[in-house]
Amino acid sequence: MATKIRIPSRVVEVLEKTIERTAVELMAIGLYRDGKITLRQAADLVSVDAKHETLNTPLLGLRGYQGRAHDA
């Protein structure tokens, strides 16, 4: 499925990855935080090998994010 969205140029200027990659990563993080998908599913979405990743990686290493209660 393809969707078009408008992203302000000032946002695009600071991205270190492609817009597509950034969008997928942000959606995976959001879905995981909302409890809609598992960590493994989030990792699959962004093609991360979960065996070598932890909750402190760029995938979930958000400022102030402490993980869901059952992740602790």
Topology:
Elements: H1 9-14, H2 19-33, H3 39-45
Task: Report on this structure.
The chain is mainly alpha-helical and 72 residues long. It has a domain at 18-62. Helices cover 39% and strands 0% of the residues. It contains 3 helices and no strands. It has helices at residues 9-14, 19-33, 39-45. It is elongated and about 30 Å long. The relative contact order is 0.12.
Give the CA-CA distance, first to last residue: 35 Å
* SSE topology string: HHH
Percentage of residues in strands: under 5%
State the helicity in percent bands. 25-40%
Please compute the radius of gyration using only Cα atoms: 13 Å
- Give me the oligomer status: single chain
**SS field, number of helical segments:** 3
Task: Characterize the overall form.
Answer: elongated
Report the structural category: mainly alpha
The pLDDT mean sits at: 77
